[in-house]
Amino acid sequence: MKLIRKMTTGLCALAMAASLAAPASADTWTHYSMGGKVRVVGATISLKDISDDGRFVAARYKYGFGRFQAGISNKAGYGTTESTTQSSNITNDKICRSRWFKYMECGTWKFAE
């Protein structure tokens, strides 16, 4: 009986250690570009303005296996975060920054790993 309890305890400890060492899901990533920070967790995207320059950040993103595209903007100012959730996991994003009297400048697409 003691041997079985020790084996069970050991297996539980091993399983916990393996789950803690597992890498983050492919549906979760953080992306920095153009003065913004995007954090994607499954179907939720958060956009933070990390550049104190008076301009706003926005992000384009794709979801639904790349079939749908949407955007989010953060005009609330430096240090603030805006979030939204879609009906399916977000697969890639691109951060853009406003410019005075010009089109927005954008970084490159970041794909889920």
Describe it.
- The protein is an alpha+beta fold and 113 residues long.
- Helix content is 18%, strand content 48%.
- It has one helix at residues 2-21, and strands spanning 28-33, 36-41, 44-49, 57-63, 68-74, 81-85, 90-99, 102-106, 110-111.
- Strands 4, 5, 7, 8 and 9 form a five-stranded antiparallel beta sheet that branches. A four-stranded antiparallel beta sheet has the order 1-2-3-6, with no helix packed on it.
Q: H/E series, N to C?
A: HEEEEEEEEE
- The parts where pLDDT drops under 50 for at least 5 residues are 7-24
Overall average pLDDT: 84
**Helical region count?**
1
Radius of gyration (CA) equals 20 Å
* Major sheet attributes: 5 strands, antiparallel
The proportion of residues forming helix, as a percent range, comes to 10-25%
How many extended strands?
Answer: 9
Structural class, please? alpha+beta
Give a short synopsis of this structure.
By secondary structure, the protein is of the alpha+beta class.
Features:
113 residues; alpha+beta; 5-stranded antiparallel sheet; 4-stranded antiparallel sheet; 1 helix; 18% helix; 48% strand; globular
Write the layout of secondary structure elements.
Blueprint: H1 2-21, E1 28-33, E2 36-41, E3 44-49, E4 57-63, E5 68-74, E6 81-85, E7 90-99, E8 102-106, E9 110-111
Antiparallel strand pairs: 1-2, 2-3, 3-6, 4-5, 4-7, 7-8, 7-9
